[in-house]
Each structure stands twice: as C-alpha cells, then as structure tokens.
Amino acid sequence: MSTLTKNFSTKYNSSPFTQIKNEDFKPAILKLIESTKAEINVITSNTESATFENTIEALEFSGQQLNRVTSIFFNLNSAETNEDIQKIAQDISPILSEFSNDITLNEELFLRVKAVYENKQNLNLSTEQNTLLDKKYKSFSRNGANLNTIEKQKLREIDKKLSKLKLQFGENVLAETNKYELLITNEDQLSGLPDGAKEAAKQLAESKNKQGWLITLDYPSYIPFMTYADNRKLRETLSKAAGSKAFKEDKLDNQNIVLDIANLRFERANILGYKTHAHFILEERMAETPETVLNFLNDLLLKAKPAAENEFKNLENFAKDIDKIDRLEKWDAAYYSEKLKQKLFSLDDELLKPYFKLENVINGAFIVAKKLFGLSFEEINDVDKYHEDVLTYKVTNENGGFTSLFYADFFPRKGKRNGAWMTSYKSQFVKNNEEERPHVSIVCNFTKPTKSKPSLLTFNEVTTLFHEFGHALHGILANTTYPSLSGTSVFWDFVELPSQVMENWCYEKEALELFAKHYETGEIIPMDLVNKIKESATFHEGMQTLRQISFGLLDMSWHGKNPTHIDNVKSYEKETFKNTNLYPDVEENCMSTAFSHIFQGGYSSGYYSYKWAEVLDADAFDYFKQEGIFNKEIATKFKEHVLSQGGTENPMVLYKRFRGQAPKPEALLKRAGLIK
Predict the structure, then answer these.
(1) Largest CB tally within 10 Å, which of 2, 109, 251, 670?
(2) C-beta pairs of 145-152 under 8 Å, 24+ apart in sequence
(3) In whole angstroms, how far apart are CA 145 and each of 115, 141, 531?
(4) Distance, CA of 627 to CA of 236 (rounded, Å)
(5) How close are the terminal C-alpha atoms of the chain, in Å?
(6) 516, 544, 547, 543: which is closest to 529 by C-alpha?
(7) Which pairing describes strands 402-409 and 439-443: parallel, antiparallel, or unpaired?
(8) Can you give the pLDDT at residue 670?
(9) Distance of alpha carbon 90 from alpha carbon 490, whole angstroms
(10) Whole-angstrom distance, CA of residue 668 vs CA of residue 501
(11) Is residue 288 part of a domain?
C-alpha cells in the first residue's frame, strides 16, 4: 500500500505496476481520500479572504496522488482485469462517488469558490486561469451546490447507484464476450477464411487444450470470420451471439440496468434544474443543446440516406446475383461488402495486410509525428509494465528534451475489454515552476502474431492505430499549467478532432511510402494499391454514415427525452432505429444492452461527437492538403493552437485560431462522396 500512497520513486515517476498487489488498491485509495480531505480542509479553514491562489489553485492541485492511483486502477480494470479487480471496483466506485459529492456539496468550499468567481472581473486572470475558475465554479453549481439538504442527499444516492450500475453493465458485457466460444472441428466449415485467421483460430483452440479451430467475439477473431467465412449459417450464429450480448434474460442481462441508468440520469438532471440528461451534458459541449445535435444528425441523415439506400440496394442485388440470397441479413453485411469491394477495386484486406506489419505501422506513426511535430520515440525497457505485451517508449522533442512516456498495448487477452482507446497514467502540468510531463497509453485489440506470421494489420486496424495515436499526441504535446485543462481534457465533441485528423495520413501516398512495406520482401506498397485505397475510401460511406447517425440518435433518444415511460428496451430501440434501418431486425439481438460507450464510458449524450469531429477533421485536413500534408507551418499551427492547448479556451476559438475560419461541413460531405 505504501508504494501507492506517496510519490513514486521510479524512473520518470512512472507507475510501479510490478510493485502493486491488487489488495493494495482499496486501503491506499481510502487513505488517499483522507489525505485529500485534509487538503480540502486547509482551504476551507483558511481565515484569509478567498483568492484564486488559496482557493482555486489549491483545489486544482489537491488529491493528485489519489487521481494517479485511481487512474492506474481503472485503467487496469479496462486493460488487465480479473475477478479481484472487478470486486474492488464494485467496492470503491460508490466510495469515490460519495467522496466526489463530499467535495462538490461542501458548502464552505463552494462559498469560497463562489467568492472568487463573483470577483473575477477584478482579478486580472490569464485566459487559462479564467477557464479554470469557470470550470471549478461549474463543477459545483452543475453538481448540486445550490440545492437544499434533501435534494443534495438525493443526488448523493443517485450518484452512488449510477457508479455501481455502470460498472456492472461493463462487467456483464465483458463476461458475455469472454464466455462465448464457437469451436469448429470440420475444416470445410472454415471455407473462405484466410490462412492467417485459420492459424490464429487453431492456435487459440490449442491454448485452451481443444481440438479444432476456436472463434470468439474478440474483434481479431470475430471480424475476419464475419468478413470471409462462406458458411452463412455459422456467420448467422456468430452474429446473433455478438448482437445478443447481455440480452438473454439471465444473470448477465443488462436490460434493467439500461432502464435504471437512463432513469437515474434523467432524475439527476431534473434535480439540478435541467429538462433531461442531454440538456445537462450538452451545456458543456461545443453543440450546447440537444436541438443542435438533433438538427446536425438529421441534416446528415437527409444527405446520407439516399446514398445509403442506393448502396444497400446494390449490395442486395450483388448478393442475389452471386449466391441467390433471398434477403440480405446483418450477418451478410461484411461478407458481401468485402466481395463487392474486391470486384469493384480488386482490393481486399488479405492483399493489403502483408504491407502493414504492426511494427512497421507503429514506426510509420512515429515518423509522421516526427515530420509534423518534431517528436522522437525510443523504445525503452527500464520502466514497469502491467503486462509483458505492453511496449514502452520515451518521447523527446526536437531539442532532445523529455516530452512524455508512451505505453502501447496491442493484443487481445482475457482480462481486456474489446475495442481501442487512449488513456493517461499521469497528466501534464506546471506547479511551483516545475513542469511534470505526461504518461500516455494506447490500448488496441489487433491480430496477434502466429507461429508463421507477424502481426499483420487490416487497413481498418491501421486507421485505428493512427486514430488512437492522434489522441496520444493530444496528451503527449500538452503544454498547459493546470492538470484538469491538460491534453485530452477538452469538450467531448472536440476530443475526437486530433484522433480523426490523424487517420487522413493513412490514405496519402507520401505517408504510406514511409511505412507500408511488404513484411517479407521490403517492397514499398505499389502505387496501384495506394490508388485503390484512395478510391475505395468512400466505398459504402453512405451506409457507414447512416450507421453512425443511428448510434447518435439512439444515444439522444435514451438521454434527450423523459425515459420514465419506457418498459421494454428492445421495442424502444427498434422504434428509434426505424428511420435509419437498412437490414431486417433480428429479434434476439439488442444494441443498447452492450452499448458500452454510452452506458459505461463517457459518451452519454455525446456519441454524435464522432460525426461532429469528422466535420472538423475534414476541414482541418483540407487545410493541410492545400499546403502539403507535411507542411511544417500548418503542423506547427495545429500543435500550438490545438494539440498543446488542451481545454484552456473554448474549442471553437482554438480551432479558428488554427484554421483562420470556422469549419465548413462541405469538406466532410465532399470527402465522403455525398456531395460533388
């Protein structure tokens, strides 16, 4: 425990993973809550008048060790969990929620914060200080500081319940993912599956002492099977297994949890004086209101739907022509899309994968970061890791100065949730004229190396790596004073700009030639393949856009309306999807029960932000294209006005400072091929 309760005496002050036992977390967190309470007590018992320094800054820098330890713990709960960690998470989440409320509902503390806030015109604060003051004041006012005693107690109870429900939701989804196995013993049933995927399935079966080929719901296993396996019945089986996660009326069912979370969020928003949870959330977003979000999504829907319906009709006709399919189903989507893509562009992932060896792609991301932002990445082995698969890098700037620690964790395993994400183990900030540099991590689930092949990425995995690396750069290049405004601590509908803009380099010849080299021959990716990648970039863009819009509308439907009348998750979801559905509904499937982004993660009332940020990223990359994709001047402007600034100013102000104008949606619609 003592390892966790004081500053780490490790190289770069890095997280001492190997020195921590699971049982250390709870006592350490309880002790650090007490020491943070003591720090808060120093602020509230100060007899001097409240100032920016003795109240706002003091509050900002309180609980730093607690924040570090909880970030280590919850990151492990996502990337390397087990039953012990999950049990501890269930124990400490309500305690942390209660403690958070102890701070925001502390009347003496709020009165001091309010006194500084009401006197801000006379304080001559910097832009960043003004932002911090606003943020601190709102963290109280938006979380119940102005409520009466009874309402404050209600809020505490709701927050406690929500913290447990969100954890339970995620644990159920992970347990459902982990327990499903499709064991195939007849090799004929693997017809169409690429050799690499077959070998991986055989290796997985062997690792579990089973004969045959094992397919699971982990993406590197699930996606190739759904994309290439000729056996339609098995694709249906697998698709229904994935689509029915936590929707089986058993102990891992999430239907009641979804209803409880939606209702508690609504009740919480009402107590705080907001019409819905979405009204509460969006007040602190670029979009500002649910009406703006719905107008944005419905406007996109209007433009994308005709293209999507046309693409779907073509795909259905194609499937009928080649396989006499009566009706295109969800388990046919990836399979026939891939076949049609191969026919139209003579391009398939198996053709591309040899050029995207994982190590080369990582190196490619590093070269792009060096050319744009002057960063160098050196692999090191003298800092602790939480799993042997994790890679660790020291990041330095153009002058050789230490900039960040960077962790990369690429392969699926039992204790790791699906998907890809960026996270942070330590924020960047300046305190007492000393700068602390950040520790940033990206976590993905890519195809593991096999006995005969290295990890070869699909093109989609390449863009995923660049996407998460874009988030990482936002953290790595942070240059602010205060930790709560640093790196990715920005409005949620701005946070995807750095990640999504980085994906653009994956489609450019100039960038691909730096790293897309055949893993056996070293041959640079041929120009005709580069052209095909670009040509196929907008393939089925209408359907993809419609899919994203449908998720955004589902999110807003759960959180932008009064949910108290909803008694059936499936029928409510079905009604919400009726304007965006292309494929027939699958009765035994439900998306909401496994929609972790909005019911476990931080995307409630925020799923639209992927599309919102795409408008920003298309507009931003258009600027690079005009001047050259490695133009140092544009890259420096992007670094100085966007990547380094975190949440120090309103994001639209930062964006306009970089771009010289507001973003134009036309750039996205043109790139997507939805308008000429």
Answers:
(1) 109
(2) 145/104, 145/105, 145/107, 145/110, 147/105, 147/271, 147/272, 151/271, 152/101, 152/105
(3) 14, 5, 58
(4) 48
(5) 61
(6) 516
(7) parallel
(8) 84
(9) 28
(10) 12
(11) no
Please compute the mean of the pLDDT values over residues 440-456 and round it to a whole number. Answer: 94
Q: Is residue 20 part of a domain?
A: yes
State the DSSP H helix or E strand holding residue 396, giving kind and residue range, or none if neither: strand 391-396
Cα 63 from Cα 602, distance rounded (Å): 22
Q: Residues 164-183: pLDDT tens digits?
A: 999 999 999 999 999 999 99
3-state secondary structure 118-163: HCHHHCCCCHHHHHHHHHHHHHHHCCCCCCCHHHHHHHHHHHHHHH
Going by pLDDT thresholds of 50, 70 and 90, the confidence category of residue 205 is very high
- What is the separation of C-alpha 449 from the centre of its chain, rounded to a whole number of angstroms? 25
- Could you confirm whether 468 is annotated as catalytic? yes
Size of the chain in residues: 676
Do residue 117 and residue 200 come from a single domain? no
Q: How many domains, in total, are found in the chain?
A: 2
What 3-state DSSP class applies to 431? strand
Contact 636, 586 (CB under 8 A): no
**How far is CA 446 from each of CA 171, 197, 466, rounded to the nearest angstrom?**
21, 12, 13
Spatial separation of the C-alpha atoms in residues 604 and 532, rounded to whole Å: 37
Q: What is the structure's pLDDT at 1?
A: 60
Instruction: Give the type of residue at 352.
Output: L
- Give bridge partners of residue 391 from the DSSP assignment: 408
The per-residue pLDDT for 111 is 97
Instruction: Give 255-308 pLDDT, tens digit per residue.
Output: 999 999 999 999 999 999 999 999 999 999 999 999 999 999 999 999 999 999
CATH of the domain at 53: 1.20.1050.40
- Angle between the 22-44 and 107-118 helix axes, to the nearest 10 degrees? 60
Q: Which of 57, 316, 350, 468 is catalytic?
A: 468
Among candidate residues 131, 146, 161, the one where a domain is terminated? 146
| Residue 504 scores a pLDDT above 70 | yes
For position 583, what pLDDT does the model report?
97
What is the number of H-type helices and E-type strands within the chain?
Answer: 28, 9
Q: Which amino acid is at 477?
A: L
Amino acid at 245: K
Q: Model pTM? A: 0.87
Whether residue 9 sits in one domain with residue 138: yes
Q: Domain range for residue 229?
A: 180-243
Give the model confidence (pLDDT) of 37-85 as tens digits.
999 999 999 999 999 999 999 999 999 999 999 999 999 999 999 999 9
Give 282-293 as a DSSP string: HTTSSS-SHHHH
Please report the pLDDT score of residue 349 as a whole number. 83
pLDDT in tens, 482-491: 999 999 999 9
Does an H or E element contain 392, and which? strand 391-396
Do residues 89 and 167 touch, judged by C-beta distance below 8 A? yes
